[in-house]
Structures are given as structure tokens and as C-alpha cells.
Design a protein that fits this description.
The chain has helices at about 80-90, 110-120, 135, 145-150, 160-170; strands at about 1-5, 10-15, 25-35, 45-55, 65-70, 95-105, 130. The chain is α/β, with parallel strands linked by helices and about 180 residues long. A seven-stranded mixed sheet has the order 1-2-3-4-5-6-7. α1 (about 80-90) links the parallel β5 and β6.
């Protein structure tokens, strides 16, 4: 089943939809979509997203969208992944959508992956990247291990919280940055 979505020329073609959480009328969580431009001349990529969330934003009248790339322990997030996610996120009109980019990996992020992710926040004040490694994904509470390891007090109750936590862990001052895995 294909569904036109009100992004600048992006059509979501459903492949394998998975119910990830029971959120009563609060959002749609799904996995594995092929993203196909409505207009092949638009300059938008034909690509896929491993993860998609559509929900209402808590602090505004906009809709929040998360698109994501997920890798197993041996996988690498590369320039092509980041370029495609950036172009898709930027296709959503900013006056109607808050677009976030999720990078999830079952291993620590490398320095190269962190640098690629940092570039997705195109201004110093932008917080649209969410990075989750096995350290965040495995515990019952998202930031239990991260808080203990980095002596932080991160919370993850909103999408904005997750993006801010990513900034604090990976992009803020050197004293809070996590040591990356070797490239």
C-alpha cells in the first residue's frame, strides 16, 4: 500500500510495518519504508528508512516526524545514509513539521559517524539528530547506562529530550563527549 505524504514530493511506500509501541492516538511507529519521490526531477533521493515515527509535537502545533537508519553491531553509518536522511528531513515544510533524524546502532558510534551526525544539525542551535547505541537501547530505561558512565542526568520522555541528550552526549563540550569506537 502506498501513501502520499505531505512532504515536498515524498511518497512513503510501506514495506514491512511493525507495531513498536501501543501509543493510544498519540503516534504511528513503523519500520522499513521505501521513500520514492513523486516527481523524479525533484532532486529527492529514492531511498529507504528503517524507522519512522509520526506524532504530534508536545510544545507546538506541528507534527513531529522521525526518520531513521538502524545498523547492527557490524554496520556503519556512511555519508550516503546521512545525505539521504538529510534530504528527506528537509523535504518536510518547517512551518508544519519538526523533522528529526534517528541513527541507531548496536555498537558504539565511531568518530566518523559522530562527525557525520553532527553535520545533520545544520546550525549551532539546531537539535534534530537522535543517536542511540546499544548502551541506550539495551537497558530498561533508555539512559541508565549513559547517565552512570558519563555522570549525567539525561531524560528521554520527549523527542526533544532525545535530541538534546544526543547533543549533550556527542556534540557538546569535550568533557561530556563519549569516547567513540575506533573508526
Amino acid at each position: 500500500m502506498d501513501a502520499d505524504y505531505p512532504a515536498k514530493g515524498v511518497k512513503f511506500a510501506r514495506r514491512n510495518t511493525v507495531n513498536l509501541m501501543d501509543l493510544p492516538s498519540n503516534g504511528i511507529f513503523s519500520a522499513s519504508y521505501d521513500l520514492v519521490p513523486k516527481d523524479p526531477q525533484s532532486g529527492l533521493p529514492t531511498c529507504e528508512t528503517d524507522f519512522c515515527v509520526v506524532t504530534s509535537a508536545r510544545r507546538s502545533n506541528k507534527t513531529s516526524i522521525i526518520i531513521g537508519e538502524c545498523k547492527d553491531a557490524g554496520g556503519t553509518i556512511d555519508q550516503n545514509d546521512v545525505d539521504n536522511l538529510r534530504r528527506v528531513a528537509e523535504a518536510f515544510p518547517a512551518n508544519r513539521f519538526d523533522a528529526y533524524i534517528l541513527l541507531a546502532k548496536l555498537a558504539p558510534f565511531t568518530d566518523d559517524e559522530i562527525a557525520l551526525a553532527r553535520a545533520l544539525n545544520t546550525t549551532s542551535w539546531m537539535r534534530r539528530v537522535i543517536m542511540l547505541s546499544a548502551r541506550e537501547l539495551e537497558p530498561y530505561h533508555l539512559f541508565d547506562r549513559t547517565n552512570a558512565e558519563l555522570d549525567l542526568e539525561l531524560r528521554g520522555s520527549t523527542i526533544e529530550d532525545l535530541a538534546k541528550a544526543t547533543h549533550d552526549i556527542y556534540f557538546a563540550s569535550a568533557e561530556h563527549q563519549v569516547s567513540a569506537a575506533p573508526a
